[in-house]
Amino acid sequence: MKPPKFRYVAPRTLDEAVEHLAADPDAKVLSGGQSLMPLLAMRLAAPSILVDLQHVPGLDGIEDQGSSVLIGAGVTHREIERSDVIAQRLPILSSAVVHIAHPQIRSRGTFGGSTAHADPSGEWPTVLLALGATMHAVGPRGRRTIEADDFFVGPFTSTLDEDEILTHVSVPTTRTAWSFQEAAVKRGDYGLALVAATGIPRDGQLAEARVSVGAAVGSVRRLTDVERLLSRGPVTDALAEEAALTAAASVDPISDIHGNSEYRRKLVASLVRRAVLELKNGA
Amino acid sequence: MKKLDKHQHMSTPAVAARSVGTRVLRSEDPRLLTGRGEFIADIDLPRQLHVAFVRSPVAHARITNIDLSAIRDADGVALAWSGKDVAAFCEGLVGEMAVEGCVPTTMPLLAGDEVLYVGEPVAVVVAESRYAAEDACELIDWDFEELPAVINMDAAAAGGPVANPQLPDNLGLNGGASFGDVSAAFDQAAQIVEGRFYTCRVSAAPMETRGVIADYEWASKTLRLWSNTQMPHYLKYMLTAYLGFPEQSVEVITPDTGGGFGMKAHVYPEEMLLPLLAREVGRPVKWIEDRRENLIAGAHAHEQYVDIAYALDAEGKITGVRTHALGDGGAYHMPPWSMAVEPWCAVVMTPTGIYDVPAAEYTYKAAATNKTPVGAYRGVGYMAGTFARECLADDAARALGMSPFDFRRHNVVREFPWTNPQGIVYQEGSWRQTIDALEEMVDYPAFLHRQAQLREQGRYIGLGLSCFVESSGESSATSLEHGLGDVYHDTATVRLNPNGTANVTIGLSAQGQGLATTMAQMAADTLGIKVEDVSVQTARSTDHAYGSGTIGSRGAVVAGGAVARAADVVREKVRQVAAHMLEAATDDIELVDGLASVKGVSDASVSIADVATAIYFDLDSWPKDFEPSLEATQAYDPSQAMFSNGGHAILVELEAETGFVRFEKIYSVEDCGTVINPNIVEGQIRGGVLQGIGASVFEELAYDESGQILTTTFLDYGLPTMDVAPPFEIHHLETPSSHSASGVKGMGESGLIAAPAAVLNAVNDALSPFGVVLRDLPLTPEKVLDAMSVATTASGPDEGL
To answer: In this protein, which residues make up the domain named Aldehyde oxidase/xanthine dehydrogenase a/b hammerhead (chain B) (predicted)?
Structure first.
């Protein structure tokens, strides 16, 4: 389990990092190495050059900007776990972060790295989709923003171009009703199913609900049927039950050695039920 | 049954317990817990080269062409061999067991014309670094024709495509025996309960993987082999037998080892190859197994079906038991134990468990498949046997409408010595007391009340019971009494130093059991000195004490016996000199608490330290004709089989929304005779039970239809972690062995032997409102949720069930 040969650069500026990426289509960005290093060790990836972002300034920081929090791509999961700003303004992130692996890995792995990796069982893609976050990227063609809805497009696939770097994520703080649910056999395991749900409490109802599912499905996605259901009226136990049934009907879960499709369908239903009931209590 | 002749080394001295029985802190821990251990990966020799293996990516294929020239030309490569190259030195390792119906196999060091399982070594590369070796492995040029992959053991045993041409019937093992009138018991039974139980394929998954370093010095023909093996002396013997290295010039060195659990109690092709490679390249060679290799190519464990039936009379007594085990042995017999370790042990070792059953019949079969060979794993075979017996006991209790405690109490052996249907004598035990103790610990009536209350809230808790009897202190006698002829013995060397401290060397390598601590306790009490004045060296080199391997729950018993015997020889010397110094008779001298005293004379004593000093430096203190060596080496092998016993009760809750099994509490009762050190015994219980929980709920080495292994990292292979480990309540019973040193019995395997049955019984107890009984491990969330979905509505199971 030794990586194949690769070149390694540790640029000191974002521009320099982008140049390296633009110069070589087989270049890969190295952030915390949480996912990339195992892929290299298993020889499942063989990039020609690793562009290490650890010395690139400006990718750190958690900044409260009022209606949103701007999180640097280089912020580690552990920093999010310990951040007062996150705890107060985006408690759903605090709730989700403890499900990411173990403290040692959370101390290495980064928010931006996991987001850009777009692992369907990743906590951040699921949560950011439910929050409607905005991704900030930079590349040889300049800076741009990408909405979460347009960012996660498939398993391990985002709309970030090969030569672009995710620099920040802007996460709205207006969705004050929230729930994050993960079913994992053991602490730190990949989840068998993840559900994130958010909304804006308004007149005893839940407005602009967003519900996303991860892990149980081939790629992280929203459950728009469930969202529509939640906009119909006050959140009740009955509505939670209906949401669970709707969720079960609207997903086509994967099957693997950890659980077949039918099992995961039941799991998604259970997590949606739990999430909606939690929204009810929070709304 | 053949009985062992009693030899001199089978007796042990009587010793007054001082440190034995106390919670002496492990002397190993300050070093190991602060990162000062030296494990095999930490060892680097000057000029060493690194080894990597090309392993088969397919389950079964004929190799039509293999060309290593690109590998040999690669940067930094010193040597590359395929099967042809190595066959000239060694045709392979023979695996067989001297039991009825065992057909031997020869496992090549590198695959010959056929590869028989994914992960089988095909070629070996020696290079300047592990990186260079792994890069070169990718350059292999070979062609193969895929052959049918035999994956299912039932189909394999029934014939059809052949997994290994050396076993044309796909059977590595096929035999059985019957004791007492089993047919009559079943013909006259008021009721028969039966079931087929499955223990899934798992890995022992020691935290430290395997590793080998070989260094051959051509001028002196000296071979030094570092291996984290559990059987260094056996490995040394094999290096001579198979490879011809001169026995007197071979040293096997066992550094600190991070767990073995049986996986490291084999002789592997890698251990045979590295000495040959070192000799060929004239430089030391090192191979550290990575985790993927360990999960794929380290011996697998457990996979078998056990069909079991109890004949019950009108009173609910078991009058006969039939057990039929079918094991999936993988592609070869795993040397030296063979495929017999699972199905043979499952039915032959304690076929009646704790129950007074007069008639027993068993058959055992091992099917060859195109999977990794199955070998030993803590409590090998006993686990599956205990699992089937104890789960069927719960089925029987349910069928009779009895509590699981009452059914067991109704059938348990009460009088000792007890002779089982095979003629094996169980000298003593607290089998009934274990059941009583567990029932009291769990407060069964209170549990039933709580279970009923929670069910009304849609919550499902279950209590599972499992009682075991464990053959321990693996010995020549145990082997002979169970129909084998394996011969064991271990030695220990004890030396008393001039200041009255002692150094002890034992022949067993340690993998984390705390042997240096427990053996210091045994030596200290025998010599009458303080435990902190004893330093124990567990086997680090075959140049010192001899050992038959750290296996079969034999460390405390066998090393303990050898240490006590060797210390007793030294004690006699001390008594002789003390007697001379105190002008008393040797027979009147006792050594306790650092003093040599005349029995019954309160002020007539001399410190043991002074006696030791005198022996080294003061001729005047010597009696006539004295021989001053304060060093003795003695052997020990128990004179008869010995059995520890105990039980576990496990409390679980099934999560209705996810099917997850949550472990709330473990209650354990252990009787390993005299407890040398409760901390260490409790550590063994906790670790073993956790492994049992893993093997029941979280772990399975999964294969697809083509024989591809799907669980090659800890991402997919689910070892239990601390967050799923519940609190333990442990109760000790002490029924000393009639014949071991200080009355100790072995207990290192009991946790894993008995926990899986308790887990399944707990889950089935929790599932009882659903009318579903599970019998196959692992109890995945999917299986549990399926079971809970039977006859359920949104509000829970049908009330009618």
So the answer is: 34-148
Beta-carbon contacts of residue B3 (< 8 Å; ≥ 6 apart): B480, B481
Question: Looking at CA atoms only, how far is residue A159 from chain B in angstroms?
Answer: 27
- A266 and B785 within 8 Å at the Cβ level: the answer is yes
Q: At which of B636, B666, B681 does a domain end?
A: B636
Q: How far is B427 from chain A (nearest CA, A)?
A: 43
pLDDT at B795 over 80: no
Structural domains of chain B, count: 2
Per-residue pLDDT of B32-82, as tens digits, reads 999 999 999 999 999 999 999 999 999 999 999 999 999 999 999 999 999
Closest among B20, B182, B6, B111 to B526, alpha carbons compared: B20
B749 domain-assigned? yes
Joined together, the tokens standing for residue A80 give 């999010």
Q: Tell me, what CATH number does B499's domain have?
A: 3.30.365.10
Q: CB distance A260–B134 less than 8 Å?
A: no
Q: Which residue in A has a C-alpha nearest to residue B288's C-alpha?
A: A1
Q: What kind of fold does domain A7-52 have according to CATH?
A: 3.30.43
The residue among B304, B295, B236, B286 whose CA lies nearest residue B263 is B295
Closest listed residue to residue B487, CA positions, set B560, B549, B425:
B549
A54 touches A13 (CB < 8 A): no
Based on the fold, state whether residues B660 and B713 are members of the same structural domain.
yes
Q: Is it the case that residue B794 has pLDDT exceeding 90?
A: no
Q: What whole-number distance in Å separates Cα of residue B40 and Cα of residue B211?
A: 6
What is the CATH T-level fold of the domain A177-282, as seen in this structure? Enolase-like; domain 1 (3.30.390)
Give the DSSP letter of residue A83: -
Instruction: Tell me if A65 sits within 8 A of A136, measured CB to CB.
Output: no
- Position B793 scores a pLDDT of 45
Mean pLDDT for B473-494 is 92
Q: Token pair for residue B192?
A: 């028969």
Closest CA to B473 of B680, B642, B351: B642
Structure tokens, B774: 């599970």
Distance CA(B751)–CA(B83), nearest Å, equals: 41
B292, B723, B785 ranked by CB distance to A186: nearest: B723
Domain that includes residue B625, residue range: 8-37+489-636
Residue of B658, B696, B701 to mutate, interface with A, max A Cβ within 10 Å: B658
Asked whether residue B174 is assigned to any structural domain, the reply reads no
Taking CA atoms, B44 is separated from B206, B611, B641, in Å, by 22, 44, 42
In a domain, B286, yes or no: no
Q: Domain-by-domain residue ranges, chain A? A: 7-52, 62-172, 177-282
- In this complex, do A183 and B658 lie within 8 Å of one another by their Cβ atoms? yes
| Residues A115, A128 contacting (CB under 8 angstroms) | yes
Domain boundary among B603, B636, B669: B636
CATH domain A62-172 topology: 3.30.465
Q: Does B714 touch chain A (CB under 8 A)?
A: no
For chain A, say whether B780 makes contact (Cβ under 8 Å).
Answer: yes
Q: Which helix (H) or strand (E) holds B321?
A: strand B318-330
Indicate the helix (H) or strand (E) that contains B127: strand B121-127
- Determine if the peptide bond prior to B445 is cis (ω within 30°): no
CB contact under 8 A, A190 and B291: no
Two tokens, residue B487: 């011969």
Mean pLDDT of B451-460: 97
Q: Looking at the domain assignment, is residue B159 inside a domain? A: no
Residue with tokens 């480990």: B725
Cis? peptide before B736, omega within 30° of 0 = no
Asked if A266's CB is within 8 angstroms of B715's CB, the reply is no
What residues of A are in contact with residue B700 (Cβ under 8 Å)? Answer: 257
